[in-house]
Amino acid sequence: MTSPEHARHHVVEVAVVGGGQAGLSTSWFLTRDGVDHVVLEAATTTGEWAGSRWDNFTLVTPNWHCSLPGYPYDGPDPDGFMTRDEVVAWLGGYPATFGPPVREQHAVTEMVPAADGGYVLTVRTPHGTETWLAAQVVVATGGYHVPILPPWAHALDQDVAQLQAGDYRNHEQLPDGAVLVVGSGQSGTQIAEDLHLEGRQVHLALGDAPRVARFYRGRDCMTWLADMGLYETPVASYPGGLAAREKTNHYVTGRDGGRDIDLRAFAVEGMQLYGMLTDGRGTELAFSPTLTSALDSADATYNSICRDIDRHIEREGIDAPPGTPYEPVWVPEQDPTRLDLAAAGITSIIWAIGYRPDYRWVRVGVFDGTGRPTHERGVTGAPGLYFLGLPWLHTWGSGRFLGIARDAEHVAHAVLRNRRPLLAPALEAS
User: Fold this and answer.
1) I need a labelling partner for 236 at 20 to 30 A (CA). Which of 168, 339, 385, 429 fits?
2) Do 147-351 and 4-145+357-429 fall under one CATH topology?
3) In the chain, what are the domain boundaries?
4) At 289, is the secondary structure helix, strand, or coil?
5) Widest CA span of the chain, in angstroms?
6) Strand pairing category for 277-281 and 284-287
7) DSSP string, 132-186
8) What pTM does this model have?
């Protein structure tokens, strides 16, 4: 621990915590408006993209979705899908376009309200501890902090390697043998596809994630949905309202120019599918008998989205090629409920069952019973405290490059409205 005499003290009007796409977007607006601020980034501005995606990762959204404030995608393939390294290069070029006051390797470890207003942030740096006093704070660290692991994972056979989806890079890092991937969201299905294409025997435990067609009636489905306004519809306007924030994103892939992920087709090719994984001890695993219903539900969503696009095309009088609904290419004979890892030759498990937020460092009472911040479009009930970069913060597009600029501008306007000249003496006195 750094002694008080070695701590450094700083005063700033606005502290932005997190230097990824959300924090940089906020900084762009604050820079434009001449607001004194700092961006405190625990690692590097591209570290999250470079460090937590596998080697063959691609975006699942078309490149034209990649649009940050003052920095739209202008490459040669707007309808393509950037690879991990291309995303890192694109995002890495953003700071040079406006010169944000970013301090990398500055990890905020605690934030508490200041006695006279504003917030005190404790920051760990390579050179020791710093203290920052900020009149307002924008927390832009996203909502995916701690990977979820079943409480019984430690009871599994210790000879079976276990790793989180964020630690997976390629099949060569895994021991020889079959692989169990747990989770059928975007990461789980794409990692399963990656291993399958590399010739590994893959076992996949499905959750309740929906799926979507990659292309339909001559265009990318996400382009159709954008034209239909789906990414701009406020979360409160969706069926179930704020409950939409708990939904899993649809699985699809941008690999090799983009295509559907059809788990039934993978099964025909030898991938072994199961329902929800519920328990495990030693080499024995137990599953709910939900494989059939999970596949049927995902396909129902797939076809429902296609029908929505059909209605949009008809309503707008658009000339588009005909479309056909998806028909299953494989149906399970039964829903398996047991699996012996040793008998199946499974030597590794990849957990892809999601993340939970971790805001324990934010010592301000703005959280609900699940540890998620309560807010209205990023603005909390605590004076001068905001959140940005959360999935479904305001719209479906909020957790994507496509919607960040709109959310960042809204938060930046709130920062301007809430500037408090009366804080200046207290800040200067600190």
Assistant:
1) 385
2) yes
3) 4-145+357-429, 147-351
4) coil
5) 73
6) antiparallel
7) EEEEEEEE-S-S--EE---TTGGGB-TTSEEEEGGG---GGGSPSSEEEEE--SH
8) 0.92
What is the pLDDT, as a whole number, of residue 181? Answer: 98
Residue 183: both structure tokens together: 């989770």
Radius of gyration of the chain (CA): 23
How far is it, in rounded angstroms, from Cα 81 to Cα 66?
10
* Structure tokens given for 123: 């920051």
Tell me the fold of 4-145+357-429: FAD/NAD(P)-binding domain (3.50.50)
Q: Kindly give, in sequence order, each residue whose CB lies less than 8 Å from that of residue 378, ignoring residues fewer than 6 positions away.
A: 386, 387, 388, 390, 393, 394, 407, 410, 411, 414
Which tens digit of pLDDT belongs to each residue from 295-334?
999 999 999 999 999 999 999 999 999 999 999 999 999 9
For 53-109, how does the pLDDT look when each residue is reduced to its tens digit (9 = 90+)?
A: 999 999 999 999 999 999 999 999 999 999 999 999 999 999 999 999 999 999 999
Q: To which CATH superfamily is domain 147-351 assigned?
A: FAD/NAD(P)-binding domain (3.50.50.60)
Nearest 5°: phi and psi at 325? -70, 160
